[in-house]
Amino acid sequence: MIGIAVLGATGSIGASTLEVIKRHGARFRPVALTANRHVERLFEQCIEFRPEYAVMKDEDSAQQLRDRLIQVGVEVEVLSGVDGLKRVAVLPQVDYVMAAIVGAAGLEPALAAAGAGKRVLLANKEALVMSGRIFMDTIRESGAELLPVDSEHNAIYQCMPLDAGEGLAGTGVSRILLTASGGPFRTTPLEEFGDITPEQACSHPNWVMGRKISVDSATMMNKGLEVIEACWLFDAEPEQIQVVLHPQSVIHSMVQYTDGSVLAQLGNPDMRTPIAHALAWPERIDSGVQPLDLFAVARLDFEAPDFSRFPCLRLAYEAIQAGGTCPAILNAANEIAVQAFLERRLGFSAIPEIIEATLGQVSSSPAESLAMVLRDDAAAREQAMQLIKRKEGQSRA
Ligand code: NAD
Ligand code: MG
């Protein structure tokens, strides 16, 4: 039996992971499940999956979960905080770690899993954006396996030659074609962007996801973060990654070869496919996803991305080109701006403004250590918060 720790079990990816695991109960065993503060949801998952460990973000929620489990006589060791997350990520009985916590909070536990030589199923793209070099070096040094779960990167992984991994040079790959749906506002008139609400931004045309990544998809920062993620995963230069708008979300990405071949991975937009792929690789297992009906899809459209409509995409390319901790600063400012937008303290169009201003004001460093990354991440959060407060003050005045 393969032991699995599902970090972020109560989220969208976490729940889909547990669905796939449930189909293969003789093969996979959930050893640890973790959540932020959603006690009731993790309680239900503990009853259903009987893990050895559960982790909550803070001790208060952990105690509530302990009490609930004692009431029903179910034995689970409940831990809390980042230390608890790191502890379950490196347990000897854990073979695979699903890294599906959203945002920077997922970095340290994912890095711990990488350092312990686990198979890391990486959904938490923010970890690679913040500390790509450190993360990839840790994977190499420990002999860990890294399987991308982000649907595009999973698709690229499937289309890559088997000997890739030491850089694109010499593999015959000329370009990565990273597809993007364009989100809910691909054709919305620009003058309406100021009035976009969190509800509108969170209703994605093709995917059901957590709120933060839904807003990222609407601003296309999600694609920007994915460009950076792809640079690290496939050792590619930013210029080798072409974003392709593809509104149907049926082709999940493509790899172009020097001989003119383009390989694509297609499927219904359902995260259980990349999750099942990463869980079973190199085998294939049933994921529960409906087979693709090409006659129902009928057509596949492609467009070039519009950088003026989606400035976040430009900012992400600029950040990875500038290097060092610039992507970490971009990511931190984005997390703060998205949170403020979801709390209705910031307009939709102001999200890229806050990120750009933060990048202009926080000085970056070489990203040589985790401490450097976390320091610049904290400085960027502070700066972004101040910029938002100033903006709020101005709009009240
Ligand atoms: P979500 O908001 O639905 O779930 C996030 C999970 O992380 C929850 O279990 C939550 O309890 C936990 N969490 C949140 N903050 C935490 C904290 N501070 N400490 C500990 N745990 C915390 O998000 P999601 O949509 O499942 O996305 C998870 C990650 O996967 C993100 O990085 C996202 O970019 C990536 N991803 C998601 C999808 C998707 O379809 N949902 C696709 C590709 C990549
Ligand atoms: Mg994606």
Describe the structure.
The structure is a single chain. By secondary structure, the chain is of the alpha/beta class. It folds into 3 domains: 147 residues, NAD(P)-binding Rossmann-like Domain (Rossmann fold), CATH 3.40.50.720; 164 residues, no CATH class; 75 residues, RNA polymerase sigma factor, region 2, helix turn helix motif (Rna Polymerase Sigma Factor, Chain: A). It is 47% helix and 15% strand. It is built from 16 helices and 11 strands. The strands form 2 sheets. A 7-stranded parallel sheet has the order 4-3-2-1-5-6-7, with helices on both faces. Strands 9-8-10-11 form a 4-stranded mixed sheet, with helices on one face. α6 runs antiparallel to α14, α14 runs antiparallel to α15 and α15 crosses α16. The termini are far apart. The site of magnesium ion has 4 residues, from α7.
